[in-house]
């Protein structure tokens, strides 16, 4: 069928040709999208997506994944509890780490972590052997960013406190060395990361919310830790 109207020194698309161009554009767009979807599908098969409510269990899991799944790409995020739950329910992650078990029974205990207050030796809180959130409410604290569950918990339990949040680890460490502000530590940090400071003391928080058991849930078909 004719697609062009030919004239003297000129050629133009006729109506057939204009319609053919529209169809061709759709085909090219669909082909491009098909290629993108296939590549995305392939990448997804080679990627384990982890959503964690806190740093420590994520770090522990990443070490295990590096040993058990060296051929896989790991994509991870630290999120609030509700964000981890939403990702799990929407099948937007393969692994979910939460400070409580899923109601569906798909999770199991992974690790425990206990929160400490870390203060200079001459701080008024340094004389205590144990503390509660109620006793430290009103004190201002240094706080790291991307703490997930811990950030939410501290703000909820200490509404009268203000938090100086640091996004960079170097700046945070410098402030700890030079500032009199309290900060938080955990037994994981003390034992695994050696985040004890010679000029500071660590005081255990006795509230049950500060002593957490983390649970891990793994989607069926994902061979993480299986």
In words, what does this structure look like?
The protein has 226 residues and is an alpha/beta fold. It has 3 domains: 13-44; 46-109 and 212-218, 3-Layer(aba) Sandwich (D-Maltodextrin-Binding Protein, domain 2); 113-211, D-Maltodextrin-Binding Protein, domain 2, CATH 3.40.190. It is built from 7 helices and 12 strands. The chain has helices at 15-45, 55-68, 81-89, 133-136, 149-157, 169-178, 187-193; strands spanning 4-7, 10-13, 47-52, 73-78, 95-98, 107-120, 130-131, 141-144, 163-166, 183-186, 200-205, 211-218. The strands form 3 sheets. Strands 3, 4, 5, 6, 7, 10, 11 and 12 form an 8-stranded mixed sheet that branches. Strands 1-2 form a two-stranded antiparallel ribbon. The longest helix is centred in the N-terminal third of the chain and has 31 residues, at 15-45. The chain is elongated.
Largest sheet: 8 strands, mixed
Tally of strands: 12
The H-and-E topology, N to C, reads as EEHEHEHEEEHEHEHEHEE
Helix content bin: 25-40%
Structurally, the number of domains stands at 3
End-to-end separation: 62 Å
Unreliable stretches, pLDDT < 50, 5 or more residues? none
Strand content: 25-35%
Mean pLDDT across all amino acids? 92
Shape category: elongated
**Structural class by secondary-structure content:** alpha/beta
Per the CATH scheme, the topology name of the largest domain is D-Maltodextrin-Binding Protein, domain 2
Number of helices: 7
Which second-level CATH architecture of the largest domain applies?
Answer: 3-Layer(aba) Sandwich
What would you report as the Rg, rounded to the nearest angstrom?
27 Å
Output the CATH class name of the largest domain: Alpha Beta
> In the CATH hierarchy, what is the superfamily of the largest domain?
Periplasmic binding protein-like II
